[in-house]
C-alpha cells in the first residue's frame, strides 16, 4: 500500500482542482444569474441571448453612452423597472450599449439611438410608445394583458377600468360573446383595452349609458368621451366602429397626439384657435365634437396657438392670422376652407 500512495497524489490533486474549479464556476454562474429583481439589467454579447430566452417579456433599450436622448431615458427606465417586475406577468427592463456591442446592433437592424424593442418569448417588436415612466408602464402592461379581458361582475368592470388608466381608449362589450371582438382586439391591442362583461347589473349598464344588450362601449377616460354601438355585429361594422373610436371626437393636436394619426387614413379637419382653454374655444370644441359625431369619415382636431405656437406655424399661422382658422389637412398638405 505504501508503494501505491505516490500514485494516488496526482489523482487526488486532479480531483481537488476539478472540484475547486466546479465550485468557482458555480459561484460565477450564480453571480451572473439574470433575475427579475426590479433593476435594469445590463446586457452584452455574452448574456443577451440567455436573457431573451429566460424571460417571457423583456423590454430592451439599445443605447449609446454619448446619446442625449438615451441619457434622458435612463432614469425613466429606472423608475419603471420595479413596477413592471412586480406585475402578475413580469416585464424585465434591460439595456445594451449597442455602440460597443456592434454585433447586436447589426443583428437587430439598429438605425439610431435609442432603439427600443420588447421581446415576447424571444420575438422582438419595435416600440414607439411613450417614454415617461408612468406612461411607459401603462403601455407595456398591455403586452402582458389578455387580448380580451372577461369581466364577471360590476366590481370586475370597475377594477378593469381603473387598471387600464386614462392613456388608451377602453372597449367594454355588454352581453357580447368575446369571439365577436377577439380578432380586432388582437389587431388593435397596442392601441386600446378590450373587455367583455359576462355578468353585470342594470346599474353598471346605466353607468356607461347602455340601455340594452348586446352593446359595445368605447370611451376615452382622458377626454371624457363615450360612444355606444348596438350593432350590427357582423361583417366590417365592428371593426369600423373600433377604428373610428381609437381617436376622440375632437382631438387636441400636438407633438404627442399626432402619433395617433399615423395609421389613420382619414383627412383631418383642423381648427386653429388662440387659446384652446378659453371659453370661446371650449364652446367651439363642443361644436367640433358634435360635427365629428355626425361625420366619422373625417378626424376633427384643434390646435391652440398659445399652447403650441411653434407647431401652429406649420399651418401658416402668425400674429397677423385671423383666428379661428380652419384647414382640411391630409397630413402632407393643407387646404383652406
Automatic annotation (TrEMBL):
Superkingdom of origin: Eukaryota
Cellular component GO terms, alphabetical: endoplasmic reticulum
SUPFAM superfamilies referenced in this protein's UniProt entry, alphabetically: Thioredoxin-like
Residue ranges of domain Thioredoxin in the record: 23-145
Signal peptide: 1-22
Disulfide bond found in the keyword field: yes
Swiss-Prot/TrEMBL GO biological process terms: protein folding; response to endoplasmic reticulum stress
One of the Pfam families matching this protein, by short name: Thioredoxin_6
Keyword line: Disulfide bond, Isomerase, Redox-active center, Signal
Listed InterPro entries: Thioredoxin-like_sf, Thioredoxin_CS, Thioredoxin_domain
UniProt key word Isomerase: yes
Any one GO molecular function term: protein disulfide isomerase activity
Family (UniProt): Belongs to the protein disulfide isomerase family.
PANTHER family for the chain: PROTEIN DISULFIDE ISOMERASE, PROTEIN DISULFIDE-ISOMERASE 5-2
Protein name per Swiss-Prot or TrEMBL: Disulfide isomerase protein
